[in-house]
Amino acid sequence: MRDFIKRMIAEGLAEEISEPVSSVYEAPKRAFFSKKMLYFHNCDGHKCVMNAIADRKSLSVALGIPEERLVKTLAACTYAGKTHDAGPLTFVPAKLSALPIMKHFPKDAGRYLTSGIVFSAWDGVENASIHRMEVLDDTHLIGRIVEGRHTYKLLQQAKAAGEKLPVAIVIGAHPAVTFAACTRVPEGKEMAYAAEILQQDMPLYACPNGIRVPDAEIVLYGYMTADLHEEGPFVDISGTYDPVRMQPVIELEGMACKPDFIYHGIVPAGAEHKMLMGAPYEPRIYQAAANVTNVRDVFLTPGGAGYFHAVVQIKKMTNGDGKNVIMAAFAAHTSLKHVVVVDEDINIYDPNDVEFAIATRVRADQDVMIISGVRGSSLDPCRIGDGMNVKMGIDATMQLGHEDEFIRADWNE
Predict the structure, then answer these.
(1) Quick check: 326 and 394 in contact, CB under 8 A?
(2) PANTHER family, alphabetically (predicted)?
């Protein structure tokens, strides 16, 4: 993380802020409206970085891959990187109030860890994924553990055995580790993926509960329990508030912090959140589209919350390629809502160019595909209350769904 921050500063992609800022609203608000990495030297008396991977340029710097080759290079990865055991870490008793954990918006339930990578293991199977976690007190968190995902499955296995799930929470890892933890990879291959991206052997350090973690600014360890507690409200990727749910409580036992540690915060619905939600799916969509035609590039758009809308650029080989790509994209990323397929001459990173393609090359009766009654994403505000959604694909297309009432996040009380 520290080497990455230095590179971003050297390339003029980061702004250093020396004056004191508060972890309550102020730092998140500044990050939300900034287009650069922000490196706070005094956030509640601590160093803090936000917008670490806020755009494709910063992701390129982090992974050492040219911007124009990001998706294609990542799509070719085989998850074959090497890791090795590097010995134990030294821990002290956990104390969450010693960290500048942020409260992002006034209607949030409280302070939230937003960049914490949860490492877990059960019966020899390891996993790493990011979960938001609400602070209860110095040693307890409530984790939003999405049903059906890998952490949830491991927790259910531990509960069935009458045990707690051992976990470690990593804050301030190298961005390649964060990116890998946000990517759907073969079971237990997150760190192998990160090592492959970085083209180096990755050391993993042991926690007292047996969980292995990479180098990071802060490591917390403990156990995810069968106990449930209300979690939320909290802002998610759409910039609207998630409903309150009953979620698992995490008991922390220890923490290990580097001297003068750098805390990493991610503002909900901000640029980094959208990058980490969407960019890891682009290689998956690329792989799927490559099975049906000659694909050039894939982009999950910021206007689609970095998650719901995809633009796929292809070299059309036969009639029907566009619709085949649409179906492949929906299969690769089941939370997609709209897909636009364009020719090589359209710049998929320019929304005006994509809209030009829709305006001049689409006949809705022939070029729009609508799939009704699908599950969609639980993050889509339009889906709240009906449980179903509509997916739309276009050989260059779009239309919004029905309107529902929802609360959009801002900093007004």
Answers:
(1) yes
(2) 3-OCTAPRENYL-4-HYDROXYBENZOATE CARBOXY-LYASE-RELATED, 4-HYDROXYBENZOATE DECARBOXYLASE
The per-residue pLDDT for range 274-285, each reduced to its tens digit, is: 999 889 999 999
Stronger pLDDT, 368 or 400, i.e. the higher one: 368
Residue pointed to by tokens 């230095």:
6
| 144 has pLDDT over 60 | yes
Count of CB atoms situated within 10 Å of the CB of 165? 28
The CA R_g of the chain, rounded to the nearest whole Å, is 21
Residues 6+ apart with CB under 8 A from 193: 77, 79, 81, 180, 183, 185
Cα–Cα dist 233/185, whole Å: 30
H or E element that contains 74: helix 70-75
Which of 408 and 87 is assigned the larger pLDDT?
Answer: 87
Distance of alpha carbon 44 from alpha carbon 16, whole angstroms = 15
Sequence-distant (6+) residues with CB within 8 A of 339 are 309, 310, 311, 312, 325, 326, 329, 330, 391, 392, 393, 394, 397
- Which residue is associated with the tokens 């397929």? 341
Which residue numbers are catalytic? 236
- In our burial notation (b when 16+ CB lie closer than 10 A, e otherwise), range 96-135 reads beebbbbbbbebbbebbbbbbbbbbbbeeebbbbbbbbbb
User: Three-state DSSP class for 164?
Assistant: coil
Q: Which amino acid would we find at residue 21?
A: V
Alpha helices in 199-232 (DSSP H): none
Q: Which of 385, 392, 356 is nearest to 371 (CA)?
A: 392
Nearest in space to 210 (alpha carbons), one of 138, 158, 248: 158
Helices 2-10 and 56-63 cross at an angle (nearest 10°) of: 120
Question: pLDDT tens digits, residue range 56-79?
Answer: 999 999 999 999 999 999 999 999
The pLDDT of residue 369 is: 87
Please tell me the distance from the alpha carbon of residue 397 to that of residue 381, in angstroms, as a whole number: 21
Contact 277, 307 (CB under 8 A): yes
Q: What does the alpha-carbon distance between residue 189 and residue 203 come to, in Å, rounded to a whole number?
A: 14
> What pTM, to 2 d.p., does this model score?
0.88
Residue 319, pLDDT score: 85
